Every structure is written in C-alpha cells, then in structure tokens.
User: Which sequence fits this backbone?
C-alpha cells in the first residue's frame, strides 16, 4: 500500500519536528507548511490524505484556511484535524461547523493520541 | 464581551487574541505542549533508553506537566464561565458513546493508577439533550477524581439509567477516600479541596465540581453526590432527555451571559492570574531542578537527540517561569500592590550594573554593547530595583532583536521639561505626559542596529502580550508583557517611555526620569 501523506500546517518548528518524527516512525509521509497561505497551496498541489492544521498562524489564521480548504473542490474532501492550543468550546464548535473532522488541543494530548486520531481517518 | 455567533462570522486572529484570559492560556499552553511532546518522545525510548534515575526524573517532569495542563484548562474554563456565564448549544447527545469514549481515552491513566472501570448500561440508552462539548470534560473530570482518590481499592463503577422519562442519570462511584462530612456542603464551591485529599499528594485546583454544577444546572439537569470519609463517593449527574420547558423543575438557569461590571471582570482576572501564578510556580520550580540534573548529565549520559529534547524541555520550562513571573507583576500592577519607593539616588551604578550583566551574552552574539555617560549626573527620584528591571527589559529587547555584529548603545543625558514637550511635536510615537518637573529629567536611551519595528506594530507596542510579527517566526523568547510592565514602572515614577524606529534600521528607546 502506498504511504499516506500527512500535510502539517504549523508554525511551531519544534512541535513540527517531534510530530513528523513520530509520523514517519508510523509509516506516514510528512509534508510541511509553516503558514496557512503556503499550506493551502501545498494542499492543492499535493492532495495529501489528511491535513493537520494549527489555528494561530502568521498571516491568514487557521479558521480562514479551513474555510478555503472546504470551499475548494480540489481539497474539500481531505479530512482536516485542527491541532491548536485554543480549545474553548466556541472555537471547537466553530471549527467543526466549518468542516473540520476533529479538534485536538496540543497541550491536552500526547503525540501517541495525535497519531491514533490520524489513523482513524 | 459580545457573545460570538457560531458559524456566522469568522473572527480575525486579532479578535481571537484580544481577550486576556484566552491569550494568557494560549501563552501558557504553547510551551506546555512543547514540553509534553518532548517528554513523550524521550519516554517512548525511540531516542534510546534512559537509565532508571533518568527515567524517574523524566517521569516526574511528565507528571508535573500533566498537572499544568489540567490547571490551565480548569482555570480557563472557570474564568470563561465567570466572564460570559454558561453559554450552551445543547442537542440530542449519545451519552453511551461519549462515556465509552472517555473511558477508552483514559485507559492508560486508569491502568497506571491500578484502577478498573466497569460500565453498566441498560439495554437501551436514550439520547440526552445536552451540549456534548461541555458535558464531556465534566464526566472526564469526575472519573478522573474517582481514579485519583481511589487509594488502594481501584474499583470504579460508571452506570447509566433513565429516571422516569425525564432524565438520564450517570452515576460514577469509587471506593476511595470520600469527602469529610463537615466539608460536604462546600464541595461545589470554587477552589474546594477536601482536607483528606490534600494529604494524598494529589494535585488539583478544586474547580472541576464548581464548573460541573454551573454547567449542568444551566443544562436543566442537576448534580448530587453521596459520600462518606474512607468509604468512597458516588456522583449522580441527572441530564434532561428533552429540551427543558420553561417553568418545569428543576429550574433551568437561562443560558445567557451574565453582565459583569468592569470592576468585577478586573477582579476575576486578577484572581485568575494570582492563582495561576501560585499554582504553576511550584511544579515549574521542581521541574527546573530535575531538568538541570538531567542536562548536566550527573545522573547519566545523554545522546545527542536526548540532550536536544531535554534542552528543549528546559527552555520551555524557563519560558513558563518567565511568563508566570510577568503575570505576577501584571497582577500586582492591577491590584495596586506593585511597590515603587523612589529615593533620590544616582542612576549611574544601576545603568552600569545592567549593562555589565548583558556583556557575556553580547560577547556570545558578537554585539558591541557600550555605555556613554556624561561626567556628572544629577540625582533622580527612583526605585533602584524597579528601574533596573525596566532598563533590563529594554536592553534585553535590544539584545533579542539585534543580529550578530550589531551595536547597542546606552546613554543618559539631562533634558529640560520644555525640551521634552517639544519632542511630542517632532516624534509621532512620543506622547509625553510628564514634562513639568522643575529640575528637568534624565533621559536614558538604548539604541540598537536591530530589525526595527514596522509602522503597524508601532501602534501596539506597549499593549499587553504584544509581540512583533517577525518575532512569532523566530525562536526569540519573550512573553509580550515586558514593555507593558516597563511602561507602567516608568509612569509610576512620573516619567515617560517612547521610541523611534525604522523597519530594518534599528530602534531607539527612551526613558525619562525626574531629577530631584
């Protein structure tokens, strides 16, 4: 089976390093974007099997990026998991209303839980 | 604060970032997440095995990090509740699935505490009319408590049943330490902790049940418990099956935001900050020691990857400590407990001390850091500790934003109030309020050849949690509170702070202090 590609849109370099290391150990291919604009372009070009998206990003924020991803025919079917440190019910609800598949709060989950969640999609 | 209508308009990031509690929590959570993930990676053994002693220290750091996660979450939920009241979006919810999921997700924690959770379900569980996003953390919190306070007998029972055709009742019972009889009436108050619970070395803020009661009552349900000391506790959550009808019992608290007077909001914010600070400081301090031992490799050698991970945790911990310290200053500033006791003294030794303390860092970054003082300076009325703190903040910013081989110059000169007043016209970022001191002022300036500040950022420089755009991308440490605190310190002395800057062309910060 071909390796699944996960696109991570996240500006915190150290978290990206830790998460991609763990994803690669679990036989995923990892693609990275450090801001929402380039993440959106990468998603259109590479059509990853899943996108991990942060909310507080430089420039366009994650909610807007999610909205664009869900409106674009090329990317609207790709499941998007929000991985943020914002996690009030309002924000969670907003993300789910915009079409996010799941919402994880970084500080609340271990890397193992993030990987388990990714595997469900 | 106006209530957000979900799914209608998107708030811009600036809106998300605008309220204090959200930002404070986000600021705290970011390093906490970094620490947690690094410790995860260390513990899973992929970066090579740790010795027993190393493993113990890393596990201890992990436990204190777990506590921080929960503390920040609970404080955030409680603060939000006070600020906005309970705002729910109830819908028919499958609680059987929700409870099963909570137990499944916590299986590692359950096993680690030698507990076993059994779930008793009737053949058919109707859906309850609640907001799953609010109910889930409540159920999780009560199960979590049952596990923590089990002590010795870890049999925990979770059952679901219907009561009439009005309620779904979730009962969670443990055989743990129980709640002392004389304390039972305050179980649902803020920051409640059982006397016997404090002795068990478990950590908790005592906010879970306070939040639970408010949310469940606003949902049209109720929460009760039965408990005896050393004989376990059972919590009963009665959740409505249908949308509560007006006038039905129990009375449903309307899910509307409570109007909070500005004074109240400020008081709540302070309480939040104070408690956050005190509760967070202890675990952070303990972790710092563990990490230092690991880093110095006194408890065993580390390979390169392990060292990097520990170093990352260490830096995250330092960042949290700095943030907590700044939050404490901020809380003191707001409650008027920030002491400034000005005395007529010479500023020269203060400036020299601050600059000297930065020389090693300057040498490492190949930055030329110089002081230029006139032969004699009049005395100023200042609190030496606070002014040292203010100057340190400014020099520290200059160090952060000045690249290698740059220069930073600190000068002091005497100016008349009239000359300063004239600046207001020349420098758009200067809005000096203090120009009337009859002996004039000393102006301390810190000039760098750093990255400068853009026009848009110049407007927000002295606001709380400000951090420059380029800064979010770099690895620069900072809490975004430094300049806000500095400005307040200077103003408490009857002086002003202002700056000139050009993107790419460096910045100069000025502080005026009254001559006595």
Assistant:
């Amino acid at each position: 089976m071909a390796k699944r590609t996960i696109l991570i849109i996240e500006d915190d370099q150290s978290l990206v390093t830790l998460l991609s290391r763990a994803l690669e150990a679990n036989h995923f291919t990892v693609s990275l974007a450090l801001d929402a604009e380039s993440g959106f372009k990468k998603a259109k070009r590479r059509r990853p099997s899943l996108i991990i998206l942060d909310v507080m990003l430089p420039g366009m924020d994650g909610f807007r990026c999610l909205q664009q991803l869900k409106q674009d025919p090329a990317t609207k079917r790709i499941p998007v998991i929000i991985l943020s440190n914002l996690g009030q019910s309002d924000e969670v609800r907003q993300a789910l209303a915009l079409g996010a598949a799941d919402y994880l709060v970084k500080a609340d989950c271990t890397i193992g839980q993030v990987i388990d969640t990714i595997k469900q999609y | 604060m106006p209530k957000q209508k979900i799914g209608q308009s998107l708030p811009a990031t600036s809106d998300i970032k605008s309220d204090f509690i959200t930002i404070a929590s986000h600021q705290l959570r970011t390093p906490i997440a970094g620490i947690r993930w690094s410790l995860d990676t260390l513990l899973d053994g992929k970066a090579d095995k740790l010795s027993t002693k190393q493993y113990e220290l890393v596990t201890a750091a992990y436990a204190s990090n777990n506590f921080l996660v929960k503390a920040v979450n609970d404080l955030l939920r409680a603060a939000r509740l006070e600020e906005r009241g309970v705002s729910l979006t109830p819908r028919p919810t499958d609680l059987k699935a929700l409870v099963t999921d909570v137990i499944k997700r916590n299986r590692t924690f359950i096993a680690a505490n030698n507990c076993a959770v059994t779930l008793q379900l009737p053949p058919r569980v109707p859906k309850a009319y609640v907001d799953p996003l609010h109910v889930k953390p409540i159920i999780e919190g009560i199960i979590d408590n049952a596990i923590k306070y089990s002590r010795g007998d870890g049999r925990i029972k979770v059952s679901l049943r219907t009561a009439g055709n009005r309620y779904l009742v979730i009962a969670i019972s443990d055989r743990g330490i129980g709640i002392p009889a004389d304390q039972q009436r305050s179980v649902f108050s803020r920051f409640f902790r059982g006397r016997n619970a404090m002795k068990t070395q478990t950590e908790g803020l005592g906010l879970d049940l306070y939040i639970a009661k408010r949310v469940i009552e606003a949902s049209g349900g109720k929460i009760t418990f039965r408990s005896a000391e050393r004989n376990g506790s059972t919590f009963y959550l009665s959740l409505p099956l249908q949308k509560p009808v007006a006038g039905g019992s129990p009375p449903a608290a309307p899910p509307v935001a409570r109007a909070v007077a500005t004074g109240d909001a400020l008081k709540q914010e302070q309480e939040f900050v104070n408690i956050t600070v005190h509760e967070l400081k202890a675990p952070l301090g303990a972790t710092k020691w563990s990490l230092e031992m690991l880093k110095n490799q006194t408890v065993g050698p580390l390979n390169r990857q392990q060292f990097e991970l520990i170093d990352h945790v260490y830096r995250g911990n330092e960042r949290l400590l700095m943030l907590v310290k700044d939050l404490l200053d901020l809380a003191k500033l707001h409650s008027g407990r920030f002491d400034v006791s000005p005395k007529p003294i010479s500023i020269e030794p203060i400036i020299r001390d601050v600059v000297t303390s930065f020389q090693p860092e300057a040498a490492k970054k190949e930055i030329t850091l110089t002081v230029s003082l006139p032969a004699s300076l009049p005395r100023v009325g200042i609190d030496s500790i606070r002014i040292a703190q203010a100057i340190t903040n400014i020099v520290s910013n200059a160090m952060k934003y000045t690249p290698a081989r740059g220069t930073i110059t600190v000068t002091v000169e005497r100016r008349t109030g009239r000359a300063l007043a004239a600046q207001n016209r020349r420098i758009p970022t200067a809005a000096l309020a203090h120009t009337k001191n009859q002996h004039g002022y000393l102006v301390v300036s810190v000039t760098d050849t750093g990255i400068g500040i853009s026009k848009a950022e110049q407007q927000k420089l002295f606001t709380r949690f400000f951090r420059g755009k380029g800064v979010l991308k770099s690895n620069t440490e900072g809490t975004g509170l430094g300049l806000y605190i500095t400005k307040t310190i200077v103003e408490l002395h009857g002086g002003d702070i202002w700056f000139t800057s050009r993107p790419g062309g460096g910045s100069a910060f000025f502080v005026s202090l009254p001559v006595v």
In short: The first strand of chain B starts at residue 91 and ends at 93. The two ends of chain B are 44 Å apart (CA to CA). Chain B touches chain A at residues 4, 6-7, 10-13, 16-17, 22, 25-26, 29-30, 32-34, 36-38, 40-41, 44, 46, 69, 72-73, 76, 80, 87, 89, 105, 131, 133-134, 312, 469, 472-473, 475 (CB under 8 Å). Residues 1-18, 247-260, 468-476 of chain B have pLDDT under 50 and may be disordered.
